[in-house]
Amino acid sequence: MSSGELLRSEAGQFTTARNVKRPSIRLKEALLDNDLYLPLSIIIAQQRRCIVFKFGAQRIERLKLIGSLYDQCQDTMVQFFTFLSNVLTTENFYHKFPSIDNLVLDIHLQVDAAFQISRSLFNLNIQSALIQNYIDAVTVVMSPVLDFVKTLHPQRTWEEMIPQFYLTFCSLSMSNLQVPEIAYKRSIEELELEMTQIDERKELTAAKKRKEKEKIHIIIDKLKEELFKQKEHVERVRNKTKAETITEFLRLCIFPRCLLSEIDALYCAHFIRVIYDLVTPNFSTIICYDRLIYDISYSLASCSENEAIRYGRFLESLLESVMSWHGDKNKFDKVI
């Protein structure tokens, strides 16, 4: 999920998986030809918010059913948005998707859903504005969004956490923080093995063998290029994040997002590790972990079944860091 488009296609996700390739293409065509992808995105996101009020006074009696419906709607929303981010072109995003302030203020989406829809558009705009300096491109693209973000919470909130950091957290995804080098290496090795096996295929002529090898070689070169660009991008993001400060951001950032999906849960855990690695000013790793782990009963009590699973995945990923500190005195002393 943190890889580039080419690696995802080689891994067989969505449009290239044999068993879903044709249905995916048909779904894409139906959504584009009838301009349905934006209305569906909005309706699914709105429905998720409405479910908790669906049964009126009887919602306490049907709490388990409501939780199940909420989880199904949430999973559908994440899957649909992920599908759109893989199949829509830059032009589709530019001409059809409203701005994030319109999504929240006019269409009345929750902030997390609005960012989920807009995240791909942010990345496209930044890449379009990127000429030399990544930070300058981000500033140009995200300045209007930052002005909107400042209106989401009272001023006292921004006294503890600057809005730039809040926006950074909400606008990034796992691909901005981590490069799956092992997955790239594995895909390249598989392609190289496939290329060596072409000579053993007696049914192919010499010309066809040469053509197949050239085709695979092009894919390998593109994968290596994509890996290089991914590394560059992650480094730029880390350099930008290092320039920002944070004190307390669990309530507004971590907890809402880690419940969205498993990849968001992993993103939250990895984000905490990144700001620790960058020695972010005013960020206490010990206090952060203490507040997250000391008493999780209140957090879990407000979760649906699937949300509790995602929260557990988030904590599991966090505890991997704790165990590494536990096993190395030098690392532990550094944290303290």
UniProtKB/TrEMBL annotation:
GO cellular component terms, semicolon-separated: THO complex part of transcription export complex
UniProt GO MF annotations: mRNA binding
Key words, A-Z: Coiled coil
Coiled-coil zones: 188-244
InterPro entries: Tho2, THO_THOC2_C
GO biological process annotation, one example: mRNA processing
Taxon lineage: Eukaryota, Metazoa, Spiralia, Gnathifera, Rotifera
Complexes and interactors: Component of the THO subcomplex, which is composed of THOC1, THOC2, THOC3, THOC5, THOC6 and THOC7. The THO subcomplex interacts with DDX39B to form the THO-DDX39B complex which multimerizes into a 28-subunit tetrameric assembly. Component of the transcription/export (TREX) complex at least composed of ALYREF/THOC4, DDX39B, SARNP/CIP29, CHTOP and the THO subcomplex; in the complex interacts with THOC1, THOC3, THOC5, THOC7 and DDX39B. TREX seems to have a dynamic structure involving ATP-dependent remodeling. Interacts with POLDIP3 and ZC3H11A.
Coiled coil as UniProt keyword: yes
Keyword set includes Coiled coil: yes
Domain THO complex subunitTHOC2 C-terminal as annotated: residue spans: 158-334
Name of this protein: THO complex subunitTHOC2 C-terminal domain-containing protein
